Amino acid sequence: PPQVKYWALGNEIWGPWQVAQLSAPAYSALAYQYAKALKLLDPSITLILCGETGYSSWDHTVLTSCVKHDVHGLGGDPTKRLIDMHSIHVYTADGDAVANAVAPRAAERAIQMAMALVDLARIENGVPAAVPRPTICFDEWNVWDPVRAPGEQGAEEKYTLSDALAVGVWLNVFVRQAASVGMANIAQSVNVISPLMTTPTGVVRQTTWWPLLLFSRFMRGHSVALSVRAPEYLGRTNPAWIRGTIETPFLDASAALGEDGWVTLAVVNVHEERDFEVELKGVKEGKVDVYTVTGESAAVVNTEGEEKVGIKESSWDGVGKYTFGKSSLTLLRWKA
């Protein structure tokens, strides 16, 4: 169809629920030929390879097979790539509030590992440096507990404040990994594992709605590298392999500098009991806009007629230390 510029080369083809399920080698052979055909038809489109989690044998096989240099599929242009993005899907959840909130760190490690597999494929296949690296299409992500919200029963989650903090960490991950992530899409947007739930009389804005609103409104421009020193959560993680592969600090942060000159700093305090007084270097003294998402406890939820979690707006003069409250997401904004 005209003007459709993003094309996925299949979705979760590795899954037994797919009518067209294939093995990784079989999928790779088919996807590569379709990729050539599509790019010959329209070189301007973006093609997305079907990945899994970013750290599976499927990802390794399909990337090694498809991330290679083929001038025949690109009209003879030695500076173009055939595969533009590699899709990965990850959902996180845990019954413990803190383990739940830090679980998206697995997604950060998944992005890093997937990009390492991209680089390995480029090295092994001799892809010229002039050809741009494919990026990650994180086209399914969210907090979802299939036991709490079974898919066969509609997957209607009732999200807690802990889940909102987890979404805040998810969004921080995407900002920190902006150089590697070409696209990220929450799954889904209404009713099914969603920040918005319809009712016969209106719409319930779940706890997870608020971090999405704040990031979409303010976290724009260029990501800013941060140096964060904070105590680390050392308890159980889900998945368990998080503990041995990436840190899980109680304070999770990201920042961006907008084209309008405004700096946005997002900090999630996942600790259920402790506030953290923090020295923030680089904050300009003067009026700092503050947006806070928190609640009475990490377990609170929003329901129809009772919104226990929302956004509290305030200001700070940028002088001295700032205290990030327990179980909270805070956005600080100031003009650079």
TrEMBL record:
Q: Sorted alphabetically, which SMART domains does this protein's record hold?
A: Alpha-L-AF_C
List each copy of the Alpha-L-arabinofuranosidase C-terminal domain by range: 139-328
InterPro entries xref list? Alpha-L-AF_C (IPR010720), GH (IPR017853), Glyco_hydro_b (IPR013780)
Tell me the keywords, alphabetical order. Answer: Hydrolase
Q: Identify the pathway.
A: Glycan metabolism; L-arabinan degradation
Q: Which SUPFAM superfamilies match?
A: (Trans)glycosidases, Glycosyl hydrolase domain
Q: Name one GO biological process term.
A: L-arabinose metabolic process
ATP-binding as a keyword of this entry, yes or no, is no
> What does it do?
Alpha-L-arabinofuranosidase involved in the degradation of arabinoxylan, a major component of plant hemicellulose. Acts only on small linear 1,5-alpha-linked L-arabinofuranosyl oligosaccharides.
Q: What is the protein's name according to its record?
A: Glycoside hydrolase family 51 protein
**Organism annotation:** Melanomma pulvis-pyrius CBS 109.77
